[in-house]
Amino acid sequence: MRKPIAEFIGTFTLVLFGCGSAVIAGPQVGATTVGVLGIAFAFGLAIVAMAYAIGPVSGCHVNPAVSLGALIAGRMSVGDFVSYVVAQLAGAIVGALVLFLIMKGKASGWEGGMGTNGWGAGYLGEYNTVSAFLFETVATFIFLVVILGVTHKIALNHFAGLAIGLTLVMIHIVGINVTGVSVNPARSIGPALFVGGQAVAQLWLFIIAPFLGAALAGLLFRSGVLYGRES
């Protein structure tokens, strides 16, 4: 059970502190705002911290799309994939629950924002469905190329966690105004369950697009085009 427990803790941390940065210190709270850059670093630093904390145990996927890419690349079994995804979803939901309970204690009131992903009219940059789907697919592909590359057996991976975290920062800087940045179905599902409505209705994109991008990256590594065939 060590690997699923590690994945639960990692995904819990990512959702609580990543989404928490948007809800508690995001642009909507005025003087205490950290802005897009601060939110981007909150997500990235959460990954860096967890990569070094739980990476030796589970690899620190904390993301069903990462696990799918690893599965397709031949780096994990179907059984491990299933247990990872269950643990990741549970961690994301509990992380969102803790954030929800914290925000319910806000004396001046709270409108219910949870850092959910979305697109379209009324959501941040108001990008359309095509833009949102394209960004999430391409960003997840790039994210997985970095992850699978820096963790490859022939790579110099002592700084893998830092490289992965900074890649997530980069993706958020570009993509927050497009979709709020998912590249992680668990990260999207957890907060959406506590908001409901459009956040839940739009979840399909934040499941399909990251899985598609991850699958393409997994196939790329399995084919051996970049590093040779996975053993």
TrEMBL record:
Gene3D superfamilies for this protein: Glycerol uptake facilitator protein (1.20.1080.10)
Protein name as catalogued: Aquaporin Z
UniProt-recorded Gene Ontology molecular function terms: water channel activity
A Pfam family the protein falls into: MIP
PANTHER family: AQUAPORIN TRANSPORTER, MIP17260P
GO cellular component, one term: plasma membrane
Similarity section: Belongs to the MIP/aquaporin (TC 1.A.8) family.
Localization per record: Cell membrane
Source organism per UniProt: Kaistia soli DSM 19436
Topology within the bilayer: Multi-pass membrane protein
